[in-house]
Each structure stands twice: as C-alpha cells, then as structure tokens.
Amino acid sequence: MELAQDMKNFHLPLPEHTYVQLRAEAERTQVPATTLAREAIDSWLLHQARKARRDAIMTYAAEMAGTDLDLDDDLEPTGIEHLVKTGTVRK
C-alpha cells in the first residue's frame, strides 16, 4: 500500500452519472470512492502501457517483415503450427 507522503492530490471533475455510479459502488463494496477511482485509473494506465508495448512490437514486426530480422525460416512453420493448434488469431 502506498504511504500518504507518496500520494499527490488531483482534482477530477466527474459527470453526474459517473459520480453517482462511483458513490454507489463505494457504498456497495464498503471501499472508499477515492480508492476505487485510484484502482480504476491504475488499471487503465496498465492497460494502456500493455497496449503501447503490443503496438510497438507489431510495428517493429511489420517493419522487419521480409528482412534478415524476420522470422527464422526453420522456426516459422513451428510458429504457424502452434497458432493453429491454440486457435490464436491475429487481431
């Protein structure tokens, strides 16, 4: 848990419906609304970081396609076989 001295205040005006939903969830879960908001923001930021990393990898892979840094010719069939077996599809 973060210490109070490690915290910074941030004023965040919310639309009425968001405020009402946040307060209702805080009451339902018996967790302070500020804690719920902080956790939601932390979760969103983590999601954004993961998305940015994924996008960077996809961009790099697209740029390297067909170059010497592309997939190893011996490993490519194995990778395709794995994707087919696991049902993984490209988004």
What does this structure look like?
With 91 residues, this protein is mostly helical. It has one domain. Helix content is 63%, strand content 0%. It contains 3 helices and no strands. The longest helix is centred in the middle third of the chain and has 32 residues. It is elongated, with a radius of gyration of 22 Å. The model has no long low-confidence stretch (mean pLDDT 90).
Secondary-structure blueprint of this entry?
Blueprint: H1 16-29, H2 33-64, H3 76-86
Beta-strand proportion: under 5%
Q: What is the assembly state of the chains in this entry?
A: single chain
Order of helices and strands: HHH
The helix content is: 55-70%
What is the total tally of β strands? 0
Number of helices: 3
Output the structural class.
mainly alpha
Looking at the structure, what is the overall shape?
A: elongated
Number of domains: 1
State the gist of this model:
This protein has 91 residues and is mainly alpha-helical. The protein has three helices and no strands. The chain has one domain.
How would you describe this structure in keywords?
elongated; mainly alpha; 91 residues; single chain
